[in-house]
């Protein structure tokens, strides 16, 4: 601690001695509002309030227009002189009817949504506190605009606009999270993130390849973790929170603690969270097909099928997880800002529940099928520099190293050989981004990116009776995947109410893989891909008035083949085995968006966006041959050979719509609905519904906010999907769907009624919780292998300091 204070004193004389603090509170409660943005877009000045609702606005001195915005509050505009005359104290009125907010995901820089033609939504920490999502996947789901698929409790695979998995991009503190083994099947990596340590989440809908590169076809999910906050006075600034939570459906026991220590020029944030989940209990009322009332247990060297005492428990689905984060921030003066972040996440091993539903010869097919510990670590150094030169006004340099580790363990029923496949990925990235105002109405965003993924994959076969292990087949070849890119985007304000944006990116992707032919006689031993991709976008935002916004956007995106596409070997379902294909090329998406939003009488807000996406050279799984054979023996079963191929043209179209109504006495009502329809061509020329185009879904909410109490009654719902409307590759998965009167799988419609509440007991303590699935429905989201929670009682206590 002495060293910290010495460094603090040494740098204390750097920078300006003038400071001015503004305090922002909520109208009616006088509670401080955290994460309010104060901005002057023209001069690229921004400030953000801390947990006490305070921000240093000394840089805004003499500024005529300061926009004060926060999600869930009415935007106001003040000059510095006005703030000074009002004693630098501001109150904000709660409302959800704003048509603009400050967003980051559009360009990786802070922008007004007035200037971004793409649809972007934000999920605030305030929403998270009320809803109490158990994982980051559940956090995305509370938006009502991201569909979440689950094959096990330790998972959650987002679907956006008919796309999912490796056709969506994840960004954490501006760093690409996607790796070269992100698969086209359902992904669980989002659960690595800690909902307690995220201060804001944004979802950009539609192509994002100009800024984010490969994979950003259907959308971008951008997570901003807690930012260290400085002291605004001579005293150290200390703040934080501690939370304990329990949920009944899976006997959840969660604990979280974070603390911020801020000085004038140094600030630190430490966060740690721990979760423990028992097997998830599904609801009492619903399809009997979702009930698996047994599990497999090893007894006296024999696998035994055990009948469950409680048939509604989904065994095995229990798991635990721990997350840690440490961030350090140093700001020697108003021009430089250094931030270092360390993130670590590790799960326990957890069963893949849908695989335990598979049967063979009238009994369980697997005695074991689980994922090993899923580990993610990231070191991230972010350097921001503000200048006023000919090249840039602001520069951001991000250096990141990530480490991913995952494994799959399976053993057939009453077989002694356990198969373990382990993967490790070292991911290195450099992003250099610039922003330059080239006039009063024009701003350039440009930059370069380099990404390297080093993939190591191993297999091991263990005889559980003798304990002897030997080398087994690996899932992937040993590989290096590289991406190099440069981009530029121009934002031009044609008029005060009309902004045009256009951008382009060139991306070069290299892949070098070496195959082990010991276990599978591939007719090749290596794959080398060199693919260039050019993508672009053009769009505009027009505001006829303060209550009316129209936006349109045309954009292209791409996904380059990664190691999972080119080189994996796995069984997709019984009787099929996927083998490598070294001849893949990128797939391209072409998208059009048209949206409008309108506020009527400061009471009703209507928001509608329509979109169409055409996917060319789509990488899909199709029948294939290996050494002239269309079938091979795989794990003791003769299996049809398949491979990922550029074999299809696909298209998705749909509508996202929302309505919000401000009611008297603190009440409000809102609904978000999503309709999408996707089709892809088959080998015979026919078409099939796209696997990741979810059925019609949405959420309706009735809210109440007054003084220290917030409450919400909501209904989540999904429409039915009949057997004839299922994708061809889903029609054989009887283990995850209900069966219709003809014995064919289908996805029934469902809805859940949920109640949430949060009450501020004192300035220090909050109590929150509620009841999910009040009517105890047994339901399963489309394409999921795990049913949702039955009636679930949640209670959380949070202490703020």
Automatic annotation (TrEMBL):
InterPro entries: Beta-barrel_TonB, Beta-barrel_TonB_sf, Plug_dom, Plug_dom_sf, TonB-dep_rcpt-like, TonB_rcpt_CS. Gene3D superfamilies: TonB-dependent receptor, beta-barrel domain, TonB-dependent receptor, plug domain. Residues 114-220 form the TonB-dependent receptor plug domain. The keyword Iron does not apply. Keywords: Cell outer membrane, Membrane, Receptor, Signal, TonB box, Transmembrane, Transmembrane beta strand, Transport. Residues 330-774 form the TonB-dependent receptor-like beta-barrel domain. Its main location: membrane. The keyword Transport applies. It is a multi-pass membrane protein. CDD domains: ligand_gated_channel. Residues 1-19 form the signal peptide. It is found in: Cell outer membrane. Belongs to the TonB-dependent receptor family. This is TonB-dependent receptor. It comes from Aequorivita aurantiaca. The lineage of its organism: Bacteria, Pseudomonadati, Bacteroidota, Flavobacteriia, Flavobacteriales.
